[in-house]
């Protein structure tokens, strides 16, 4: 596939249904994990214009910043700290309508207002998280959760 995206306007479901096969086409057959994670976040950023989207990968006892799109970010996050560390500890997707009301929120940027973090689980273990931030309150919902979980379940982390 050419490295061009077809960006769709309209409702959120239509946008996801358009971008998912494009992400699949970008990543299928490419064995390099970093390349696939980088193209995934770039495609999501282009389609949705979120404030920040990126991966954190588990390395020993921390989440370590992986490929992302947006302003500079926190490099390392301990298990149980902030939204990302809490998602890792709970092995659960967290949707946070107002990050300022989340106990222990780590403010990498004061412009971030809401967040969704999805754990990447392989072989029963969390190996990373997908973190998405918006500069708008209450930006994420179950539709985002459903489609973002579909996207991360399709990525190959066996690199």
From TrEMBL:
Residues 40-153 form the GAF domain. InterPro entries: GAF, GAF-like_dom_sf, Phosphatase_reg/MetRdx. GO terms for cellular component: cytosol. One of its GO terms (molecular function) is L-methionine-(R)-S-oxide reductase activity. It holds the Pfam family GAF_2. Belongs to the free Met sulfoxide reductase family. This is GAF domain-containing protein. It comes from Chitinophaga silvisoli.
């Amino acid at each position: 596939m050419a490295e061009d995206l077809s960006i769709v306007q309209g409702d959120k479901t239509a946008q996801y249904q358009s971008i998912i096969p494009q992400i699949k086409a970008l990543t299928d057959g490419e064995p390099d994990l970093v390349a696939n994670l980088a193209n995934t976040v770039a495609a999501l950023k282009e389609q949705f214009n979120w404030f920040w989207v990126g991966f954190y990968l588990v390395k020993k006892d921390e989440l370590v910043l992986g490929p992302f799109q947006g302003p500079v970010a926190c490099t390392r996050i301990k298990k149980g700290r902030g939204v990302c560390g809490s998602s890792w500890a709970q092995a659960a997707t967290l949707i946070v309508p107002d990050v300022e009301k989340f106990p222990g929120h780590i403010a990498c940027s004061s412009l971030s207002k809401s967040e969704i973090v999805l754990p990447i689980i392989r072989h029963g273990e969390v190996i990373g998280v997908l973190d998405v931030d918006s500069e708008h309150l209450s930006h994420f919902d179950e539709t985002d959760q459903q489609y973002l979980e579909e996207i991360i379940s399709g990525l190959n982390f066996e690199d």
